[in-house]
Prior knowledge:
Layout: H1 11-26, E1 34-40, E2 47-57, E3 60-64, H2 71-79, E4 81-86, E5 89-97, H3 104-118, H4 131-137, E6 143-148
Antiparallel strand pairs: 1-2, 1-4, 2-3, 3-6, 4-5, 5-6
Amino acid sequence: MPDDHYLQPGWFTRKVFNPLIAASTRAGLSIWGSRILGVRGRVSGETRETPVNVLTLDGTRYLVAPRGVTQWVRNLRAAREGVLRLGRREESFRAVEIADPAKVPLLRAYLRRWKLEVGVFFDGVGPDSDDEEILRIAPNHPVFKIEPIAR
């Protein structure tokens, strides 16, 4: 999996869109499945937070990294667990990274749901692309299965 594939967010996303989604989610209003991901920093050990979209497919939930190998991806790979928050509700989970060939239906479903928001990061691949095209871009988009942990 490429460790350097990362598409930096633009000014509007950093300064307007993500803060708006994060504030809404912290207040308990989920925008299309949004949650605040909390994961322990691999260097600092401090909890780092970022808004994410949680994909639910066939009763299983996943985190997809549309921008590639972001800091939250690196931290989640190291910590192997995190917390999803919506308002005051908190859910601890274990993260299991998905192998590239198994990502095809997950990336297709993710694009079907959030293409308008994130489609630009998928190199022209959309929900109607063939499996080979989705498999071609799969290494650039880490996907984690969410396994709840009772605490």
